[in-house]
Amino acid sequence: QVQLVESGGGLVQPGGSLRLSCAATRITFSLATMGWYRQAPGHQREMVAVISSFGTTNYDYSVKGRFTISRDSSRKTVSLQMNSLKPEDTAVYYCWLYTNGVDYWGQGTQITVSS
């Protein structure tokens, strides 16, 4: 069974940076599309950034220019570098993997941007 293990969440001040990482196991990583979603209280889960097996990236407009998604096939990880964080970035962030018509999700990690 595919497992996604996230790390790197926490509390940061506005304008600060954080890096999220997600390690995938029991998956042919090179064939998977991966990404990050987030869900704030009272809101639906929304796409933050995705990266295809070819390395093509796509970002939500609200994070473009501030967040960078990357993947390391040798380590089977996907990372999200988040800079210039804003209070509205506060949410639970979920690692997402899509392969062979199936979605897989991590357990979620809390990001809180507050002074």
- Termini Cα gap: 40 Å
* Poorly predicted parts: none
DSSP strand count: 11
Question: What's the shape?
Answer: globular
The largest β sheet comes out as: 7 strands, mixed
- Helix run count: 0
The proportion of residues in beta strands is over 45%
Class inferred from helices and paired strands: mainly beta
- In round numbers, the mean pLDDT is 94
Radius of gyration: 13 Å
Q: Classify the oligomer.
A: single chain
Question: Could you give the order of the helices and strands?
Answer: EEEEEEEEEEE
Helical amount among residues, as a percent range? under 10%
Characteristic terms for this protein:
single chain, 115 residues, mainly beta, seven-stranded mixed β-sheet, four-stranded antiparallel β-sheet, 11 strands
Please, could you describe this protein's structure?
By secondary structure, the chain is mostly beta strands. The chain is built from no helices and 11 strands. A hairpin with a 4-residue loop joins strand 7 (67-72) and strand 8. The relative contact order is 0.32.
